[in-house]
Structures are given as C-alpha cells and as structure tokens.
Amino acid sequence: MRGYTHLAFALAAASSIQVLTHKDVLSLPVMVAGISALLPDIDHTDSLLGRKIKPISWLINKLLGHRTITHSLDFAIGLCVIILLTSKFSYWAWMFALGYITHLLLDSLTRTGIKLSMLRQNSTIGFKLVKTGGVVDTAIFIVCLLILSFL
C-alpha cells in the first residue's frame, strides 16, 4: 500500500473511535495514529516518513532492508506492548498501536505480504489481493477520505 493509504486508513480508524467515544477528532491521539501508521515504512527512503528523515531511513534500510523487522508481526506486537506498558496504557499509546497494526493489516493484503516472525524463515503471510498503487489501493484511500469527510 502507498503511504497515503496507510495514513488515510489510520486517520479514518482513529477518528471513528474518537467520534464513537465522544472525543475531539482533531486531537493528539489521532495524529499519533497517523504517524505510527507511517512508521513501518521508515526503512524505505522513498516512503512518506522516509523522505522526511532520509538519513535515518537510509541507515535503517542499509542495516535491515525494507519490509523486514518493521513489517514483522512479532516486532510490532513487542513495540506496541513496550509503548503501552511504559505509558501505563495511555489512550495515545493505544492509538499508536492502532496506527502501526493497521499498517501491517493493509500490507498483509498486498502481493508482498508481511512477516509473521523475524525469528522464522519463510514466515511471510499475505492475501495477495492488492497491488501497491493499484486500483484497490486507490479505492481504499478514497473510501477512507470519504469516511473522514463525514466525521
């Protein structure tokens, strides 16, 4: 999926939660969800986040490659648990987890998929339904924008 799709999906999900819980849509927790949805692609220098912090992105890419540790489910769960525990399960930490996990959820729909575990070879899973930048990717982006426009 494209960065814009990840961002729109996380913002739509977080904003929907805000509306359902009678909280302000334009808030720090929603921004946290949006930023964390871009975080897994920090290992790609041409990603939305990677372009903003190119030297860091380049270094991570050279050390780890793209779609390795940052796209593995075990790393995501570990990172989210650490953030939740250190923040004493704060609301913004849950929004961080929401953004990061939605990124992996969307990427699991792509032809490349995601890794279940960095500890096991050949643990990639994916539904191979979506071509990054293709029609379905664009459709998901548009639907998320429509949802956001009604919130």
Write the layout of secondary structure elements.
Elements: H1 3-20, H2 28-38, H3 48-52, H4 54-64, H5 73-86, H6 91-107, E1 114-115, E2 124-125, H7 135-150
Antiparallel strand pairs: 1-2
Helix pairs in contact: 1-2, 1-6, 1-7, 2-6, 5-6
Give a written overview of the molecule.
InterPro entries: YdjM-like (IPR007404). Keywords: Hydrolase, Membrane, Transmembrane, Transmembrane helix. It comes from Caldicellulosiruptor kronotskyensis (strain DSM 18902 / VKM B-2412 / 2002). The structure is a single chain. The protein has 151 residues and is an all-alpha fold. The chain has one domain. It is 61% helix and 3% strand. It has a two-stranded antiparallel sheet. A hairpin with an 8-residue loop joins strand 1 and strand 2. The protein starts with a helix and ends with a helix. The relative contact order is 0.19.
List keywords for this structure.
about 150 residues, mainly alpha, 7 helices, about 5% strand, transmembrane, transmembrane helix, YdjM-like
Q: Count all strands and give the number.
A: 2
Helicity, as a percent range: 55-70%
Query: So what's the overall shape?
Result: globular
Q: Largest beta sheet, briefly?
A: 2 strands, antiparallel
Report the average pLDDT across residues: 95
